[in-house]
Amino acid sequence: MAIKKKNTVSKNTEPAKIIDGKVIANHITDEIKRLLKINNTIKPGLALILVGSNPASEIYVRMKEKKCAELGFYSVINKISEKVSEMELLAHIRAYNNSSKIHGILIQLPLPKHINERKVLEAVDFRKDVDGFHPMNAGRLLIGEKCFIPCTPAGIFELIKRYNVETSGKYAVVIGRSNIVGKPIANLLLQKTKGANCTVSITHSGTANITEFTKNADIIVAALGKPEFLKANMIKEGVVIIDVGINRIEDSNSPKGYKVVGDVDFKSCSKKASMITPVPGGVGPMTIAMLMKNTLDSALKKIYN
């Protein structure tokens, strides 16, 4: 009588390959510079609207301004008092909508509580909505039409493509359902196109037993905002992990008193994953790179003619 052999799963003995967002962001920056040399009569313009004095928002805006200066873009930071009325803020947006020097408009979030965020985002001309938050762009993304894609999901998608991650027919699990990351990246991975064509599940705080989903995933995008949430016992061997989280946790060994970690327990998960993004240095650098690309595409009228 023949003896049946047990099915065995080979253990991943190699350390996970690091998906380096800094390297890919630099490649995209170089591509933008080359396109600007070819189209040397074009000077992309980006308006950055900052309401109030949130320290984190001010840092993000300065980083974007610095990148614009590096690339030779025209940029303007419009810093507005947190006491501004909604009507006044909408007037600033209309001025940029009508300016021929401005190709992209970015509203730095969050906004003060007395201002309707949705109303403000919808006031931006969708043809200058380089953040990809306008309903017109969100809707076009859903149906697979050309549009401005939110910068972080666009950056994730570029990392997946440029690292030649096999996606077609694979099972992707997104942890998080935000309009900024979770929903857009799920829609991108779902499309019938290169770097996508996945079967996609979106999990979130209301999902019962998330591990049932993550254990079967070939690709996981973690974007829920919980430090080191995804553990090694929640994943299978060989999974590709994209960590979107940026969280500060106390660290007495650090001069700052804290360290920055993602939504993934990198130490344990990197021993089972085939590829993984670090935090910092993974998805983060891609967000600004894709903002610059969206702004250039707007100036070149690549999305909306």
Short note summarizing the structure:
The chain is α/β, with parallel strands linked by helices and 305 residues long. The protein contains ten helices and eleven strands. The chain has two domains: 41-133, Rossmann fold (3-Layer(aba) Sandwich), CATH 3.40.50.10860; 149-284, Rossmann fold (3-Layer(aba) Sandwich).
Features:
2 domains; Rossmann fold; disordered N terminus; 3-stranded parallel beta sheet; alpha/beta; 6-stranded parallel beta sheet; globular; 305 residues
Account of the protein in words:
- With 305 residues, this protein is of the alpha/beta class.
- The chain has two domains: 41-133, 3-Layer(aba) Sandwich (Rossmann fold), CATH 3.40.50; 149-284, Rossmann fold (3-Layer(aba) Sandwich), CATH 3.40.50.720.
- The chain is 35% helix and 16% strand.
- A six-stranded parallel beta sheet has the order 1-11-8-7-5-6, covered by helices on one side. A three-stranded parallel beta sheet has the order 3-2-4, sandwiched between helices. A two-stranded antiparallel ribbon has the order 9-10.
- Strand 5, helix 7 and strand 6 (199-203) form a beta-alpha-beta unit.
- The radius of gyration is 21 Å and the shape is globular.
- Mean pLDDT is 94; it is low at 1-10.
